[in-house]
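Customer escalation, tier 2.

The customer says the design service returned an amino acid string that "doesn't look like it belongs to this structure." They asked us to rerun it and document both sides in this ticket. The original structure tokens are below, unchanged.
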């Protein structure tokens, strides 16, 4: 019962505040367009605090998270990390499914922020768009983050990586920082109840530039599933 009450309070508080953040960002975008990333980061920090104090979920990072010219590849188990990455990185360019940009109001802010849209059913066309957007983000000095499984997966599952990872690894020629996360244990996909506990990010060993596709994928796949 307590978990249900806390989950309900989180939903009301977070989504009400999210609407206010979106309206704030829309207004600010007309006056100072460059302020949108800062507002998005404030929203992410609010989300982490709400999860901590309303749900009893705290965040732990295991290992040193390097900052600089890297491609960050992250396990994807729940909505939590899609928002929380803005707490881990400075204005990250995050790959996300194209449908999210169609959400009223929020989608407009996502475009202005610079979310990287991914068309999951567009084949080679989607891969070319992903490459171009990621390259543009790197030229702006923004870290690029990708969820290589393409969608949220239940905790414990380890599906193969989508082809987008290999394409970016080859194009950007950046060392890869693989990051495991176990958010699905306490905030499972599609479930209303969110349980208290610790959400862990585990930073894996850096995958160097120049490996063949199979070797790079094997190393990354193992590292992002280290918390399974």
């Amino acid at each position: 019962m307590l978990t249900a009450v806390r989950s309900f309070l989180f939903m009301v508080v977070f989504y009400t505040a999210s609407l206010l953040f979106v309206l704030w960002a829309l207004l600010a975008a007309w006056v100072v367009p460059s302020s949108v990333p800062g507002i998005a980061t404030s929203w992410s920090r609010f989300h982490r605090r709400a999860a901590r104090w309303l749900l009893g979920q705290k965040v732990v990072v295991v290992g040193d998270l390097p900052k600089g010219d890297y491609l960050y590849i992250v396990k994807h188990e729940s909505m939590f990390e899609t928002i929380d990455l803005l707490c881990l990185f400075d204005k990250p360019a995050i790959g996300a499914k194209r449908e999210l940009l169609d959400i009223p109001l929020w989608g407009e802010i996502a475009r202005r922020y610079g979310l990287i849209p991914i068309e999951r059913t567009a084949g080679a066309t989607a891969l070319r768009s992903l490459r171009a957007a990621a390259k543009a983000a790197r030229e702006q000095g923004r870290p690029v983050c990708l969820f290589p499984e393409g969608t949220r997966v239940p905790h414990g599952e380890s599906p193969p990586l989508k082809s987008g990872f290999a394409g970016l690894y080859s194009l950007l020629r950046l060392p890869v920082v693989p990051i495991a996360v176990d958010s699905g244990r306490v905030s499972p996909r599609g479930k209303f109840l969110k349980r208290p506990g610790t959400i862990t990010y585990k930073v894996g060993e850096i995958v160097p530039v120049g490996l063949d596709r199979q070797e790079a994928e094997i190393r990354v796949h193992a590292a992002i599933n280290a918390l399974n």
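Tier 2 assessment: The sequence is consistent with the input. The chain has a mean pLDDT of 91. Residues 39 and 161 are 32 Å apart (CA to CA). Sent an explanation to the customer and offered a walkthrough call.
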